Each structure stands twice: as structure tokens, then as C-alpha cells.
């Protein structure tokens, strides 16, 4: 499905931020979509937002490059169990290849690291050409050999600095 939105200028230098979605922005976020060949790897943002409204462990944000909405992220946060999952993550087809996904993912990691019991982040992937595995590997995730809902699971280990209490990425 092609987007009919006008593409504002976005570049590798764009400042990436994660923002709450509200009544004024929800339609723009729902109009974002990946390349047609990537549709099998991620649900639509409309479907994700609908699911988030019925799941209290969901945390979700729009991904912006400067003032342009470019993507969507949703996590599942089981704080009581210390388990954190990237449930949905997408960058619109028009804005891929600018490094925006890696910048946004780094902010998601920072969000999760703020929890005192956060030591690892999980994500399920589909191991097919064009899928997200290589992206997550570049960002430090490793395959675990485990499967969830039939999909291979990748994990990013967070290492906690005992002296400062600071979590840092462990690659």
C-alpha cells in the first residue's frame, strides 16, 4: 500500500524523538507503512494501536525525525518480571536508509534501561530475506535459539555498572 503523504525533508542529520500519540497525530501515524515486501514482518500501526488499547503492559510512541512522523514503536513491559520486549517497530518506507531506525531503537533502549531490573530486551524476528534480523544484529541483538509464537527470539543484553548504577549496552 503506497502512502499518499507528502514527504517532508528528512536526512541522516535529522533529530529523532519518541513522542506520545494523540488525537491530532494518530491518523498520520496510521498512514505510515513499510515497503510492500516488508508487510509480512510487521503489523500495521492501526492494528498495533488497537491492540495497545487493550493491553496494559504496552508502551508505544511515534517516531519523529525533526517534526516529521517517520515510524512507530511498541514495547511490552513486564516490569514485575523484569521482561521487556520490542513488540512492534517500523520506519516508513520513505524514511528507511537514513539511520533513523537505529537512532530510535537507541532511545527505546534508554527508556527500558531506566527500569531498575532491566537487564535484557527481547524481540521476535522472521528469518527471511528483507526481514529485520540484520538490523537488530547491527544494533547489538543476538539470536537466542529460543522461539516465541513460532518466531526466533533475539536478545540485547544490558550490562549494569555496579558502581554507578548505570546500564550500558553490552555487545
Descriptive notes:
With 171 residues, this protein is α+β, with helices and mostly antiparallel strands. The chain is built from 4 helices and 8 strands. The protein has helices spanning 26-31, 45-52, 100-113, 133-138; strands spanning 16-19, 58-65, 68-78, 83-91, 120-124, 142-148, 151-160, 167-170. Helix 3 links the parallel strand 4 (83-91) and strand 5. The longest helix is centred in the middle third of the chain and has 14 residues, at 100-113. It is globular. Mean pLDDT is 89; it is low at 162-168.
Key structural traits:
171 residues, alpha+beta, eight-stranded mixed sheet, 4 helices
Task: Map the helices and strands.
Layout: E1 16-19, H1 26-31, H2 45-52, E2 58-65, E3 68-78, E4 83-91, H3 100-113, E5 120-124, H4 133-138, E6 142-148, E7 151-160, E8 167-170
Parallel strand pairs: 4-5
Antiparallel strand pairs: 1-2, 2-3, 3-4, 5-7, 6-7, 7-8
Overview in brief:
With 171 residues, this protein is α+β, with helices and mostly antiparallel strands. Helix content is 20%, strand content 34%.
Shape: globular
Low-confidence stretches: 162-168
Q: Assembly state here? A: single chain
Helix content: 10-25%
Q: Between the first and last Cα atoms, what is the distance in angstroms?
A: 36 Å
Structural class by helix and strand composition: alpha+beta
Strand content: 25-35%
**Using only CA atoms, what is the Rg?**
16 Å
Give the overall pLDDT as a whole number. 89
Q: Work out the helix count.
A: 4
Write the element-wise H/E pattern from the N-terminal end onward: EHHEEEHEHEEE
Sheet bearing the most strands, described? 8 strands, mixed
Q: Got a strand count?
A: 8
